[in-house]
Write the C-alpha cells for this entry.
Amino acid sequence: MNRLFGSVRSRATLGATLVVAVALVTAGFAVVLALRSNLTAEAGTRAERSARAVAFDLAARTAYEDLTGLDGDDGPVQILDEDGGLVAASEDLERISGTATDEVKPRPAPPAPGDDDDDSDDSGDSGDSDDPDDSDHAEDSGGSGEDLAPGEIAGETTFGNGSATIDGDTEDYRFAAVDVQTHDRGRLTVYAGAPLAAEHSAVDTAQTAMLIGLPLLLGVVAGVTWMVTGRALRPVEGIRREMAAITASEDLARRVPEPGTHDEIARLARTTNETLTALEASVERQRRFVADASHELRSPIASLRTQLEVAAAHPELLDLDGAVEDTVRLQHLAADLLLLARLDAGERPADSLVDLAALAREETAGRSGVVVRTEPAQVTGSRGQLGRLLTNLLDNARRHARETVTVTVRREGAWAVLGVADDGEGVPEADRERIFERFVRLDAARSRDDGGAGLGLAIARDVAVRHGGTLTAGAAPTGGALFELRLPLVEEG
C-alpha cells in the first residue's frame, strides 16, 4: 500500500479524483437545493393563486357550498374564521397537517341572530376588533394581521409545508394562507395547498442521477488522470532506468534519453546529460591527473634512488648537488599536487583584504629584469594563494622572456587587473587555453628541469576561479605573452 501511494502517479490520480469529487458533490448539493427551492416556490405560487381565487369568491359573498375551490381537484382547501375554527374544507378531505388546524370537518353554522343590525354590527366588530385576544387568534390561524376593509383581500401571503389525505391519497403539499375580510362572515383565512410531488420527483431523479453518475464520472477522471500521468512520467522512468544502468556499469559515456518535448522533463533530461558530461570530463581529468602525477613523481624518485644506490656502493661517486635538486623538485611537485587537491576539494579562500600592488612589489623583490608599475587595488582572498599565483606567472614569464618581465596592477571599473607580460615569443592563439591544462608543456623538447611539471599555470587558473575572478592569456605589446588576472575590486572605506 505504501509503495502504491508512494508514487507520483498514484498521488496525482488520488489528488485529482478527490478534487473533482469535492467539486462535484458541492455542485450537486447546490443543484439539488436550487432545484428544490425553485420547485417549492413554483408550488407556493400555485397554492397562492388557488387561495386568492377562493378569497376573491368569499369577498364576493359566495356561499361556502358554491365555492369552486372546494372540489379538491387543485388541492386541499381550508377556510378558518378569526377564532381558528374550520368553517369550510375541501370535499373528501380526510387528514391534513401544516396549517393552523388539523380539522377536516367544518363546525356547524351558528344560529342566526334575531336582529340584522346587531348581526351587521357584530360582523363589523369581528373584522375590525382591536381586542388582543382576537389578534392572537388571527395570528395563530396564519393571518397576516393587516387591517382590512370589508371585501378586501390581504396583500401578504404566508407559506408552509405539510401533508394531506384526499379520498385515500396522501401527498405532501405547499400551503399558502391568505386573509380576507368578508361583508357578512367576518375575517376569514383561506389555506390552499399545491402538491409537491413534482418537486420530490425531480429532486429524487437528480439525486439518483448523481448517485449513479458521480462514481462513474470519478472513475473516468481517475482513469484518465492515471493514463495521462503515466504517459507524462514515462520519460522520467526512462531517465531513472538509464541512470541506474550508468550507476551499475560506471560507464559515464552513456546518456539518458531526451524526449522531444519542451517541458520540464525534457529540461531535466538535458540537465542530467550535461551533468553526466561534466562528471565524465571531471573523472577523465582526474584519471589523467593521477597518471601524469605518477609519471612526474616517478622521474625524480627514480633519479634520487639511483644516486643513493650508487653512493651506497661507491661513495666517491655521489652527486650531492643532483640529489639535492631532485629532492627540491620532488618537494615542489608534492606541494603543487597538494594545493591542487585542496582546490579540487572546494577549499574556500580566506576573506582577508589583499593589496595587489603591495603583493606585486613583494613577490618581484630580488628578481632581475622585472619592471613593476602599480596603483593601489584591494581584493579579498587568501594572500598565500594569490602570492602563489603571482609567483607561478613570474616563473613562467622568466623562462620565456628574452630580457624583461613587466608586472602591472591597475583598476578597471569594478575589477582589479594584474598583468604579467614578457618579451619572448608569446603563446600561439590556438594554445592559449590549452596551456592552463594540467601537465601541459607546449615545448616538448624542453627538459623537465627547465620547464617544470606543467602545473604552474593550472594552479594559477584554479586560484583565480576560486577567488571569483579570471585568468587569461593573450599577446603582450612587446610581442611576448601577457597573462591578466581579474578579481572583484574592494572599494576602500
